[in-house]
Specification:
D-Maltodextrin-Binding Protein, domain 2, 2 domains, two-stranded antiparallel ribbon, six-stranded mixed sheet, 220 residues
């Protein structure tokens, strides 16, 4: 196997989001106590402590007679959401990683735009992406996280060739070309992606850029 030295490794994190469902039998249920119960489903186990504290604080202090129920699912969240929609018991708010658009044509999600104040629109407008959460002027979810791109370089290779660490994309390309020209005979190349698993590598490396640039959602 050739020794391929990766000077840049791109790691892409999925963009978690909160979508608001409007297709269940009852958008929000009212308990005997008179409180309106809003159900929020998520699989963010790593943030469970933080969000549980925030939910408890909200429930204890809000004066709107609302009770927020924070329900954590494991890896079966997507299947649970699908089944809940079929039975008319979908949650009021859900965290969805990807492919939320499968229910848009069925009008399962609420357009958030009419409910946002001018201040909230100003606060969130930088994360409205046409073809993703903004479709035909309707806003279907607000991201709660970001795609993370991390760049790594091989210091040993850079020191060997006397190269400076690139600080711009042009410098990155120039350094990669130099490394390939000088060391390809040794099986060392200037750039590599995490493509050991073709499907996973393509999805992590290209899908977010395609969606951001074209508004198209792939099904890799």
């Amino acid at each position: 196997m050739k020794k391929i030295t990766a000077i840049l490794l791109i790691v892409l994190a999925l963009i978690p989001s909160l979508a608001f469902a409007g297709g269940s039998k009852e958008a929000a249920k009212e308990e005997a106590s008179g409180k309106t119960v809003i159900r929020l489903w998520t699989n963010d186990r790593h943030d469970a402590t933080f969000w549980t504290e925030k939910v408890d604080e909200y429930n204890a202090t809000n004066t709107d007679n609302i009770e927020l129920r924070y329900e954590i699912y494991t890896d079966n969240l997507m299947q649970a959401v699908d089944m809940a929609f079929q039975t008319g018991e979908a949650p009021d708010i859900m965290k969805y990683d990807m492919y939320f658009d499968k229910y848009i044509l069925d009008e399962r999600y609420v357009d958030l735009m009419p409910y946002l104040t001018d201040e909230q629109k100003e606060l969130t407008k930088d994360v409205w992406y046409e073809g993703q959460n903004l479709i035909d002027g309707k806003l279907y979810f607000i991201p709660t996280g970001n795609t993370c791109l991390r760049l790594f370089y091989n210091k040993t290779i850079f020191d060997r060739l006397g190269l400076e660490v690139p600080t711009t994309l042009d410098e990155m390309v120039e350094a990669a070309l130099t490394i390939t020209e000088e060391l390809s005979g040794e099986g060392i190349y200037g750039f590599a992606c995490n493509l050991k698993s073709a499907s996973s590598g393509l999805k992590r490396s290209l899908e977010p850029q395609v969606e951001r640039g074209t508004g198209l959602r792939s099904r890799l």
